[in-house]
Amino acid sequence: MAKRAKVMRRIVIYVFLVTLSIFTVWPFYWIAKTSLEVGKNVYKYPPDLIPHPVSIENYTGAWRTLNLGRYYLNSIIIASAGTFVNVLLSLMAAYPLARMEFKGKKILFFLILLPMLVPVQGTIIVNYITLKRLHLLNTYSGLIISQAVTIFGIFLMRQAYLGIPKSFEDAARVDGAGELYIWWKIMTPLVKPTIATLATFQVITWWDNFLWPMIVFSDSNKYPLSVALVYLNSTFQVNFRYTAAGIVLAILPMIILFLFMQKYIVNAIAGGVKY
Length: 275
What we know:
The protein is mostly helical. It is about 70% helix and about 0% strand.
């Protein structure tokens, strides 16, 4: 009886997980399926599970009509610069919080974590006014500076630095190494997996960023891909299949990136929990 109950419990769990997976994956599958269809009602019910015939016409049409090349380039510029600045500043802020002793360190770390209690939407007006007074609206630098460092990045890198044995640091000091050399040449290379994880999160965050770029940029030619797809679809009433193809092209790089980096992400999160 106990064995049968255990089997039934597993069956129920698997059925629940499979059902949940279907509900989770279905919107992405429907978009991908729609992007491969031509000459059919997009909102047909019941929907066809397999597109027939399969065509890449929507992809070529979307790339040509929506000028996706420009917006792809915008997203690459924003994601690359934003990720680089965020990772560098996170490393610079996390190292003293983890490895150096100074008065008020715990209070400072608490104050850094405190803004996590404030919703992102609550800071939009303040950030917008700040950029306006600095004359940085409608610029890439204004977009990046306003989100140049994240609390998550500082916390993640601090946990990584805390996991390094103190013997590495002591040996470097005995050899006469300075603080800057220890940070950049000795400690930072030891946390490369966590840096890779933070960089992955940042690339995805910047790539998918929608609300803030839409507020900062008044010139639609500077929009990243995530904003441009919605803007073009609503303004010019483009064929929705073109938009679906654009969405797939926008999602695909992030899926590939995550598949390559998931090992580092799991290890970094496990290390953060451990320490």
